[in-house]
Amino acid sequence: MRIIGERSPDDCVDTGFIKVYLLNEKVTEDFLKFLQNFGELQILDGIREPFYTVDKEYFFTLKGLVGKMEMKVVYRKDRMDEAKGFIETLMRCYSMKDGGRGLEEAKAAERKIKEKIL
Amino acid sequence: MKRLIYLNNATTSWPKPREVVEEVRKSIAAPLLEPGRGTLYGFNYPAAAREALARHFNAEEAENIQFTANVTDSLNVLIHGFARAQNGRFHAITTELEHNSVLRPLNTLARSGKIALTIVPFDERGYVAPESVARAVRKDTKLAVFTHGSNVLGTLQKIGKLCGVLSEKGVYSIVDAAQTAGNVKIDLSRLPVDAFAFTGHKYLYGITGIGGFYVKDPGRIETLRQGGTGSYSENPYQPERMPLKFEAGTQNHPGIASVYAGVGFIEKAGLQKIRKKTRSLARSIVSAIGKEENVTVYNRKPDLPIISFNIRELACDDVGDILGREYGVVSRAGLHCVPLLHKRIDGGRGCVRLSPSYFNTAWEAKAAGEAVVRIAESAGKMRRRL
User: Fold this and answer.
1) The pLDDT of residue B36
2) Whole domain around residue A73: which residue ranges?
3) Chain B neighbours among A 54-113 (CB < 8 Å)?
């Protein structure tokens, strides 16, 4: 999975800086299962389309509708560049699908970024 | 495509009445008539809009109505203009209900040492008690700035009593009527208000970029801007005469035309009828969502058409996203530029606000209420692990 574009220009709201990314494939429950290793997952069913959030505290929140080829990211504070790089790493690692190597690489990236920002 | 249910009128009203759209079109299509800046004869929008607003607010002097970019601009002109007219440091009063359009200018003056600021709390129902304001007045109090209607709790403040208390003590009062102008009856001839700030793009049904204020005694406020007025050009300074004093430069004629037509629309439709309908829509939403266990409604009996709530377990901006993307309901989520109020009601977390207008229907209010209930029910069964 990867980001192929942006749907809207930057938007600054109370919770942070918002970007809506267009993706080359749909957000699936399988992808969310991968993401739950890196943040707090919530999936809301029972509404018209399932809505998810993955919150990486103090860093960013990913959110959107399951099955859509786009994802909203709410970036916190001034960590947009690192955060975007990390999100792209997560997508790339998820796409590896080779029995855990992707997860290991993403966890290593997470450790590295934690050392840098915390 | 989902049907759009626009319930964000406390931010900017939509749709605009047909008359407003037509008047803006006419104002752009015709050459601009500006007395003193051209020889054209025709319709003078600023003069006509001043008259319409003076009639609407029952203000004695139409010329004391000044046009600005919005209510924030009006409040800046009034607050900083009042402060500039004072000699030395003084004390000012405001309230916890205030928007940043009031708080930020006052905080800026406080930071620079020009004022000492007291913030009066609101009571558990969202009202500021005149007695609390009276208690906050000191010997050096010269200014009080407060909202007429809360943009989150929808409470209508008793400005007659509040300003009366201040007037008795010689304190200058500025009222922020962002949420009430065009929404409730305002009679400036009977209210002891010194200055009154409004915006055009909410319940006066105008376009964005137009606001204004009424000032009883223009001599109490210094001008912050100086420039061309198309008259008294030999005067090296900004003329003190109204309506020139605070209106340097070419005006926003399409904006003024929109407010002119907006007031005309309100008069034609009837303010009471508008108010009756919007309050009924608000009640219908409260009644639908207020019974839901997972929903916290912060104002069950709003005076203004504003309903604020949260759904347990969900961030307010997520609720706003779901309402918009899945149900076509346009709301506003977050702190609504009133940080002190949110600190009191939800610990600074923010909430979701729905604000119907005259153009919403009972069906839309019902659909929005049902959407909130559906989300709240789902929040109770949320999955946190896959």
Assistant:
1) 82
2) 3-117
3) 61, 63, 65, 72, 74
Give this complex's ipTM.
Answer: 0.89
- Smallest CA–CA distance, residue A115 to chain B, in Å, is 27
Query: Which tokens go with B122?
Result: 């609101």
The domain that holds A22 is classified in CATH as 3.30.310
Which fold is adopted by the domain B18-268? Aspartate Aminotransferase; domain 2 (3.40.640)
Q: How confident is residue B37, by pLDDT bands cut at 50, 70 and 90?
A: confident
Residue A8 has pLDDT above 90, yes or no: no
**Residue in B closest to A35 by C-alpha:** B386
Q: Which of B350, B378, B385 sits opposite A45 (nearest CB)?
A: B378
The tally of domains found in chain A comes to 1
Fold of domain B5-15+270-379: Aspartate Aminotransferase, domain 1 (3.90.1150)
| Residue B185 binned pLDDT confidence (cut-offs 50, 70, 90) | very high
Say what the pTM is: 0.94
Q: By CA distance, what is A45's nearest residue in B?
A: B378
- Mean per-residue pLDDT of chain B: 96
Tens digit of each residue's pLDDT (9 = 90 or more) over A51-81: 999 999 878 999 999 999 999 999 986 778 8
Number of A/B CB contacts below 8 angstroms equals: 64
The segment(s) of chain B belonging to CATH 3.40.640.10 are 18-268
Which of B313, B327, B378 faces A46 most closely, judged by CB atoms?
A: B378
pLDDT higher for B332 or A13?
Answer: B332
Is there a contact between A13 and B334 if contact means CB atoms under 8 Å apart? yes
